[in-house]
Design goal:
This is Polysaccharide biosynthesis protein. The protein contains 18 helices and no strands. The protein is mainly α and 415 residues long. It has 2 domains: 212 residues, no CATH class; 180 residues, no CATH class.
Length: 415
Amino acid sequence: MVSKVVSFCYQVFSLPLLMAFLGVEKYAIFAIFLTSIGWVFWLSNSLSPAVTRITARNGITQIAHRVYLAAKKVTFFIAVVAVVGGAVLTLVQLNHQVMSHFNLHDVLLLLLLSLLVMYYSVADSVRQGVGQQHINNLYFSGANAITIVSIFVIAKMNWHESSKLPLAIVVTYLPLFIIKVINTFQVNTKFKVKPLTHTYNPKKALLKLLFGVGSANLFIQLSVLTNKSVVSFFVIDASLVEMAKLDIAFRYFTIAGTFFATIQAPLWPLLTNAYKQKEYNWIRMWQLVLTIGFGVISLVLFAVTYLYGEQLFLLWSQAAVVITQQEIMLMSGYFLTIALNQAHIILLMGKSDFAFIAKSLLIEAGVLILLIFSQQFEQSLLGVIQALIVARIISSLPMLSWKVWYQQRGAALES
């Protein structure tokens, strides 16, 4: 719970501090940097559930020990490829308006720090597998707290304009890197792993196991990352101000969705056990609670943003950008679809139906790409939210709803 509170505070307080420090245009560049770097983490993050699951089943046995070492080597390989590819793609895709605000050193600095963070993140999965997620949460909370304080400190000092973007990158990633190095050192010491001297060549079977277990998570992350990347590059090609507004919208979705993530963590294993015990009445009760509860929360949020949204977003962005009432209403409408999807996803996770979740979200990402390239939507926050809503309503939302209904119907017949 403490980690979620700290993460919540980070999302809330880092925005106005960074906006005041960087200004709107540099903040937009910073936001597109973070979106682009998500592709660097994508393949590596897919290994996390595999390492966690294998470690949880076997403890630090020989196979889990080998998985840990193999995952680190695979992560390092992915990181090197991603750094080179990421630098090239970033420079190719960004237009002249964007390019005028940064240089190659900023890109390389971000890629280097993300590489190091990625390589030292495997230990987090090992800790989670042996029931020490609370230690991961403690470390992550510490990194977020240090970052918030660092942003506050540098924002109060006078810096040359050319130094601001790299400074923002450093204070965002350096604390996380340091914390992960400490965590990795402790895990390596506890489980007697020597990553710098121990040699182990991952075999094909082991790599297949790693990517096989994490494949559904891989595609779920791909869909989310695709959605955000497509709309971000679509908007930034037209306006840096609209890109800054879009990032504010995504932060708003993250903050408002914190409650859903808080519910998901403890409820997931309970639902899994209920399916095993065939307690279908209990599951149906939770289906009703989640669907109605998440819907009501979304409607309450809709009412609050309708009454006070413009003032709140103006205050949050330090009056750097103006988000209109129409944009806020559409954002609230999209959040309702997020809430309904999340209720269905939690129920399907209890059934371990990750493949269908991934399939639904990938179809949504494909639909969104088609909508964006149809050129029927404005290159603005308003146009993007409209495209996101349409893509979800005609793809993942009905698919996930049908799957949950079909499973409950089958359970009713079985009982």
